[in-house]
Amino acid sequence: MTAKPLTILTGINRASKPSSGSLILVNDLYRAMPDTHTTYLGRKPVDQAWKSAFDRLITLATTKRPQGPGFGDYVDELTREVAALIGKIQPDVIHAQYLGFALSLAFTRAAGSIPITAIAHGPELMAAEHSPSERAALDEVAAASTAIVTPTSALADRIDRLTRHRFTDRLTVIPWGIPLNEAQVRTQPPSGPGPLSLVHAGRLDDNKSTITAIEALALTALPHHLTVIGQGPLREHLQRRSTELGLRNRVHFSPFLPRAELWRRLPDFDAFVFTTSGLEAFGLVLIEAQAHGLPVIYSDLPGVRETLGSTGVPYTPGDPRSLAVALDRTGRDCRRSSLAKAALHNARRYDIAATSRQLRDLTLQLTKT
Questions:
Q1: Residues 6 or more apart whose Cβ sits within 8 Å of residue 114
Q2: What digits encode the pLDDT tens for the residues 266-295?
Q3: Which candidate in 3, 87, 136, 242 could, as Cys together with 251 as Cys, close a disulfide (CB 3.0–4.6 Å)?
Q4: Separation of alpha carbons 367 and 369, rounded Å
Q5: 3-class DSSP state for residue 45?
Q6: How far apart are alpha carbons 330 and 196 in whole angstroms?
Q7: Looking at the domain assignment, is residue 157 inside a domain?
């Protein structure tokens, strides 16, 4: 007799499309998860191809409102909507994406006896570290969760400190992953020493600190070129700064690319530059770059260091001069082919199939306790 599939309720309170690392990860995660039926709660607009990872996608009707006046009423209204859906779906378990945002609060308050696994992504921790109300929300979801999943031990430690060590025994590290079978390694091996064709991809905001890469290029001895792929509030500022530094011919900007198109372009570059200066939960884009054979020059943050081990070239976060030295050292390094091989070897540790299997195994344990 075939066992009944595990039914999971999850969601992210944003437009249902691949617009960020968390949304792409969640889509990959449940697409790869065996023997499960997943219902996803999201917002319009819905990307029809993206939603195919889920057995059912339901768009939330409650009008979304940010933290501030009226937020409590909004969460109450959202909780009533979620409670009605839980009554119809009758899930075995709830996966609360983000540890403390509005939809996670609604899941927490509407779950009843259904076990909750909270899955931390990082932005909610940054919010909680700067806002008492966001911290209270994080505490509430953590307290209601049977398990709290994080992609690195560095992020788990940060959650543990933020929650004053009250939920240490609930923290479980499950590294993120990507669909490795879809990555295509560059056909040409890295060229010899010389200027690098660099790529940076991500949201253009303060935390991602793309400005570090642009200002570093003005300090390098070798005339490296940089392609910046992404959108965000700092795009115009970054373009102006490139012009001010005389880098108009060495820094090129490209809009946000769907992952399939980004992956097609990655093998065209010599190396990937990662510039986040604050919190980074895991650095999924680093594994994407490595899976395509690109050496990674990265800001030496705890979570990133854990993800990459010794397979990348570190520099001091937010320090253009430190990055410039790392870029020139990589450009002059006769071992660039060995850096590419190390990158590929490291990427193989992070297959989304393994992530999905580990999360499903943990979920099954929780439903049996």
A1: 86, 91, 92, 93, 94
A2: 999 999 999 999 888 899 999 999 999 999
A3: 242
A4: 6
A5: strand
A6: 8
A7: yes
Range list of β-strands (E), 84-153: 93-97, 116-119, 147-150
- Tokens 């696994």, residue? 117
Confirm whether 144 is domain-assigned. Answer: yes
- How many distinct helices (H) and strands (E) make up the chain? 14, 13
Residue 146 sits in the same domain as residue 20: yes
What does pLDDT average to over the chain?
Answer: 94
This prediction's pTM: 0.94
Examine the domain organization and report whether 24 and 143 are in the same domain: yes
* 288 and 206 assigned to the same domain: yes
Encode 168-197: b = buried (16+ Cβ within 10 Å), e = exposed. eebbeebbbbbebeebeeeeeebeeeebbe
In 146-234, where does DSSP find H-type helix?
A: 153-162, 210-217
3-state class (DSSP) for residue 306: helix
Q: Is 1 within the bounds of a domain?
A: no
Tell me how far apart the alpha carbons of residues 80 and 175 are, in angstroms, rounded to a whole number.
33
Structural domain count of the chain: 2
Residue 53 and residue 77 in contact, taking contact as beta carbons nearer than 8 Å: no
For residue 295, the enclosing domain spans 180-347
Report how far residue 113's alpha carbon sits from residue 261's, in angstroms, rounded to the nearest whole number.
43
The sign of the dihedral angle between the CA atoms of 7, 13, 19, 25 is: negative
Q: pLDDT tens digits for 7-62?
A: 999 999 999 999 889 999 999 999 999 999 999 999 999 999 999 999 999 999 99
356 and 317, same domain (yes or no) = no
Tokens of 269: 């570059």
Same domain? For 20 and 104 the reply is: yes
Q: What's 217's domain CATH number?
A: 3.40.50.2000
Q: Which helix (H) or strand (E) holds 273?
A: strand 271-274
Closest by CA to 275, choosing from 293, 296, 290, is: 296
